[in-house]
Design a protein that fits this description.
It is built from nine helices and eight strands. The chain is an alpha/beta fold. The termini are close together. The structure holds zinc ion.
Length: 206
């Protein structure tokens, strides 16, 4: 079962992907991680990507798709994979179509106002990196290690609005693109409740 997670920033894709990985034995693939690994290991496609990045240019979709193609050919992806953060545009979705069969697209539907609240309420531990939100945890220090929490520079309204605009323009059209295999779930405050809905939907399919 190959799954794409679709949703705006702060919609909870990462958390959902982690839970699905644990319960269903699917492999979570993020293109950000793929880039880092390929560059670190000095693979041909990694060096190609780096040549663009060094020039301050965007890495062409064809390079990203080649990395993906190599990754999903690996043995651990036999049961399936979860793509989190790719594709982000229609051309990327067209390219993906040529290398993989996508069974289900799960869209996490969270109102933009709620996303802004989540972004502005995010607090990060200065020592262990644990992430909290003031809506569920409003203490100044980390529950795990006791270190002070801080607000990251890019968790501000301007940055979040800019990211939401890119999402609305480039990524939201994928909802129509994948209409035939789309499962929409309202992203709730409680990530466990959201996960239960997805889990029930996937049960028996995997
Ligand atoms: Zn901590």
């Amino acid at each position: 079962m190959n799954i794409i997670l679709l949703g705006a920033p702060f919609s909870g894709k990462g958390t959902l992907a982690r839970k699905l990985t644990e319960d269903f034995g699917l492999v979570q693939i993020s293109t950000g991680d793929l880039f880092r690994e390929n560059i670190k290991n000095g693979t041909d496609v990694g060096m190609l990507a780096k040549s663009f990045m060094d020039k301050g240019q965007l890495v062409p979709d064809s390079v990203t798709v080649e990395m993906l193609k190599q990754r999903i050919a690996q043995k651990d992806c036999q049961k399936g994979f979860i793509l989190d953060g790719f594709p982000r545009t229609i051309p990327q979705a067209e390219a993906l179509k040529k290398i993989a069969e996508i069974d289900t697209v799960i869209q996490l539907d969270v109102p933009f106002d709620e996303i802004r609240r989540r972004a502005l309420g995010r607090r990060t531990c200065s020592k262990c990196g644990e992430i909290y939100n003031t809506s569920t945890y409003d203490k100044p220090t980390c529950k795990k290690c006791g270190s002070p929490l801080f607000q990251r520079d890019d968790d501000n309204l301007e940055t979040v609005n800019a990211r939401l605009e890119v999402y609305a323009n480039q990524t939201a059209p994928l909802i129509d693109f994948y209409a035939e295999r789309l499962f929409v779930v309202k992203g709730q405050k409680d990530a466990d409740a959201t996960y239960q809905i997805v889990k029930n939907f996937l049960k028996g399919k995997i």
